[in-house]
Amino acid sequence: MTIPTGKTAHVDAFVRDHLPSKDAWPDLLFELPELAYPSQVNVASELLDAQVIAGRGDAPCLVTDVEVWSYGRLYEESNRIAAVLVDELGLVPGNRVLLRAPNTPSMVASWMAVAKAGGVVVATMPLLRRREIELIAEKARVELALCDARLSEEIAPVAALTRVVTFEELSRRAKTRPPHFANVATAVDDPVLIAFTSGTTGPPKGCVHFHRDLLASADTFFKGTLPCDARDVFTGSPPVAFTFGLGMHVVFPMRIGASTVLIEKPSPEAMIESVARHRVSVLSTAPTAYRAMLPLFRSKDLSSLRHCVSAGETLPLPTAQAWQEATGLRAIDGIGSTEMFHIFISAAGKDIRMGATGKPVYGYEAQVFDDSLNPLPPGSIGRLGVRGPTGCRYLDDERQKEYVRNGWNFTGDAYLVDEDGYFWFQARVDDMIISAGYNISGPEVEEALLAHDAVADCACVASPDPDRGNVVKAFIVLAGRHTPSEDLAKELKQFVKARIAPYKYPRKVAFVTSLPRTETGKIQRFKLRQLEAEWKNQ
Hints:
538 residues; alpha/beta; five-stranded antiparallel sheet; 25 strands
């Protein structure tokens, strides 16, 4: 096995110097012929310039409700911006550039421009606030930020940033620059992205990805799970600042010359409207959005849809079944992580087994381990370990040794693998509920609750109990005209008892108006545990 490497082009070596030591990296797998990259690769050259060189400059690349950017236009715009970054803003290869914007063509053009100039993108979610941005800017030693003017209020006071340039100003400056730019000949293993985790389990961690990582994710996930071509049209809800969104909206479609419909405010209604209006064939979003879209189908033509990718949280069986009944399509569940860049276990089409996440993506391996890191046989619940051509490299973070052990990436998920090699999600390791000696999977209880017509959304956590150690507590958002009551709580408890082992039912029920979620749709169960502790102390 030869792992692609090259001569660094980074003048500013901060990121390379603050990677974990090589012995703390996971094992990397590059046996596949698709992964034999040359030593010097710039991901913008491979994704964008290659389409223009191939004669696809007039083909649509980025679509909104008001305009269409061709590959040629994106190529010229990103070249002009790259020239501004280098000639006017003093960017040198290896410098970090913070991006802050919703899903817009300008966001993608700026992303490509930073890569072309040899910089390192540090993209941030639009909903992040000043303190969160400050932590990211300080951690990544960012001095320059490119920002949508509508989101500048939270970023302007960030002390670490010596320069904040709005996209509007950037566009004005770029108009005077030539439409061609000599991309920096970055090494295939030069960093191009620091993706910060959503912070559901503690302070956000900076995950460093190389130029080759983004290409490897496209060249494996597409080949083995999501066969598409240039005729496909992509859309969805994840922000481009999130690796799920960067993959599904930018890296994957551009790798094959397809187009993406960018939605600035991707509500369920907006996604349904975009699918119908733009004849979208590939939709990506979180399970909660798929549930929310179900009642909206009646007047819309969704016949163009071919693939529906679900990630961010496990896809509950009731949601998967309801989606198939409504659309005739099986949703593609997938587990990925910011550390791995994208999805590494999934299944599509006839290979989907309802309720299971799937099998390792082409080019990846997965295994279930016990707490001593011994492999477990099929049918056992243990810690998920995965490895492939991508892997965890935290920026200057001691938590590297927790995520990577014995060459495997440990995602923090508890899984079971069956005799046929399908992986079944049980819970986050930290979210397994131990009650009276029984291990109870919170998501399994949630799945049972979601099958009840009164439940629109729910999450289960451990609640301290003097007799059982912990019991299951369900936080439930009611659907429609249902109202909270003791009778309904009892009904839901009995409903769960009838669907799964009785010892797993939620002994406590709290009705809430909403659940705390990250911008990417993940339930913040730690906030529910905090809320439970506050209630207990009152």
